[in-house]
Amino acid sequence: MEIIINFNLFSALSSLIDLGNNPPIVITWIIIKNGGWFFIAWAILEGLWDVRMEHITGAYAASTDHILLAFKIPKESETNQQSPKAVEHIFSQIMGAYTSINTVEKYWGGRIQPKFSLEIISIEGYIQFLIRTPVKFRNLIESAFYAQYPEAEIFEVADYTKNIPIEKFPNEEYELTGSEIILAKDDIYPIKTYPQFEHPLTQELKDPLASLLESLSRLQKGEQLWLQIVITPDLKANKPLREKGLRVINKMAGKKEKVHENISDKGINIFMKTLDAFGEMILPLWKPAGPKKEELPSMMLHLTSGEKVIIEAIEEKLSKISFSTKIRFVYLAKKEVFDSKKGLNAVFGTFYQFFALNLNNLKPNSRTMIKKFYFFNKTRKNFRKTRLLKYFRSRERTGGSTAFMLNIEELATIFHFPILSVVKTPSIQKTKSKTAEPPFALPTGDESINLRQTFRHIASPYSVVSEEMKEKTPLPINLPIK
Question: Do you know which Pfam families this protein is assigned to (predicted)?
């Protein structure tokens, strides 16, 4: 038997050597003829399927109308003293946009979950908070914000990214830098969140966005910086995230994972348990039973304080709903005032505040960052600039970096309205006074007077409006609308 096996092995090696002596074309043909065609056909079909899915989902996304909403918080309002907890509640309500998609809608119609883009921009030093939303979810967004900030003002504005007449780089007038931002570790590990920026005694929040807003306010004429956080409500993605997190927790705690058994596994286990029980009955007849081995205590008693902190942090993240997230930023300026360090340092410095050595942190993606290359430097840099600007304008969620999961507490940490008593940046867009409901007893009988006035997009019959007052509410001054 041993001689036969050695002979077969020798024959197989000889066949491989003979195959390698042929030209590459002949080798390829022999492999294809002997079954390799199946794997090639499978790879081609899979590629064609991916192209088709990308096409139909892109067509569905293009058919969805979006609007851009700008937000202003009254300067003297009590609501602007709220912590990011208020924005956390807003994200919980936005999860209501999640819809169930059946197989036909997904693979035939290309239907996908709606996406929302949270944006903080500075155009020549004027700062604005924006949200891009599908038109059909405008009421959801506005009601969510008014519930937490009842004195806020919400305006529909034009897309500021289209005011820059650039389609590709190089460009004679403008220069660009930026990157997409990713997590350094697996997304089950949380970043540093806003409760960790609160003073333990006074509970005063040291706003992590303060430095970013200060840097944004210092941009000069011809400079712009755009920060974008694209989120997608996906309840289905929360389940594998939780399962992955529990596996890590159980491994650290020394717990055995529960294995899902099929019918054959159950039958084998029953047979083995029967043999074990029979052996325990027979063995003492020949050998006296020794002392029973005591079970080890829980590994939780032997974990270090740092390991316990990690487990608690993962459990805390998994206790709140998460969104599929992509983050990117663009610093764009005219060539005579372009300073790449100004844009990069402002954003990177802000995200380094969320750095937790034992947990997670946000970092630039080296595959999308505009940087120097050893080969074809200018061509590759211009390609990345063009692609980054394209993805930013389209609020792309599939191209570029792989999306990751951030829960509502993490999102509220990196996107929230500043507490104006803490953040003193003067160029944040805010209203000069509070808004109030119109008086109830205004005259309404004269039909020659226009009795309709828009108040938060609701027609009110209680206010008298002249022709001059019928104009649309002006847009924020920091958004150059054509």
Answer: DUF8128 (PF26449)
- How confident is residue 286, by pLDDT bands cut at 50, 70 and 90? low
What token pair was written down for 401?
């970096």
Structure tokens at 152: 């806020």
Cα separation of 122 and 346, whole Å? 12
Cα 225 to Cα 385: distance, rounded to the nearest angstrom: 14
Alpha carbon distance 126, 480 (integer Å): 11
Q: List pLDDT tens digits, range 82-140.
A: 788 989 999 999 999 998 888 888 888 888 899 999 999 999 989 999 999 999 999 99
Structure tokens at 383: 């390609």
- pLDDT single digits (tens) 327-366: 999 999 999 999 988 888 888 888 889 888 889 999 999 8
User: Is the CB of residue 34 less than 8 Å from the CB of residue 94?
Assistant: no
Q: What are the phi and psi torsion angles at 215 (to 5°)?
A: -65, -40
> Which amino acid belongs to residue 269?
N
- Please tell me the distance from the alpha carbon of residue 429 to that of residue 119, in angstroms, as a whole number: 14
CA distance 305 to 148: 37
Per-residue model confidence as pLDDT tens digits over 154-188: 989 999 998 888 888 888 899 999 999 999 999 99
63-72, 111-120, 255-264, 431-440: segment of lowest average pLDDT = 431-440
Cis (ω within 30 of 0) for the bond into 170? Answer: yes
| Strand partners of residue 232 | 324
Cβ contacts of 187 within 8 Å, gap of 6 or more: 241, 360, 404, 405, 406
Answer whether 181's CB lies under 8 Å from 327's CB.
Answer: yes
Amino acid identity at 386: T
Pairwise CA distance, residues 341 & 96, whole Å: 40
Calculate Rg over the CA atoms of the chain.
Answer: 30
Q: pLDDT averaged over the chain?
A: 79
Strand partners, 116: 231
For the packed helices 138-148 and 85-94, what is the interaxial angle rounded to 10 degrees? 160
Per residue in 57-71, is it b (16+ CB within 10 Å) or e — as a string? beeebeeeebbbbbb
Give me the residues paired with residue 455 across strands.
Answer: 458
β-strands 174-183, 362-364: how paired? Answer: antiparallel
pTM, two decimal places: 0.76
Contacts of 224 (CB under 8 A, 6+ apart): 121, 122, 123, 124, 164, 330, 331, 332, 333
Q: Determine how many CB atoms are found less than 10 A away from the CB of residue 274.
A: 10
Nearest to 53 by CA among 18, 105, 122: 105
Residue 213 pLDDT greater than 70, yes or no: yes
Residue 304 vs residues 198, 283, 301, 309: alpha-carbon distances, Å: 25, 41, 9, 9
Strand partners, 332: 176, 224
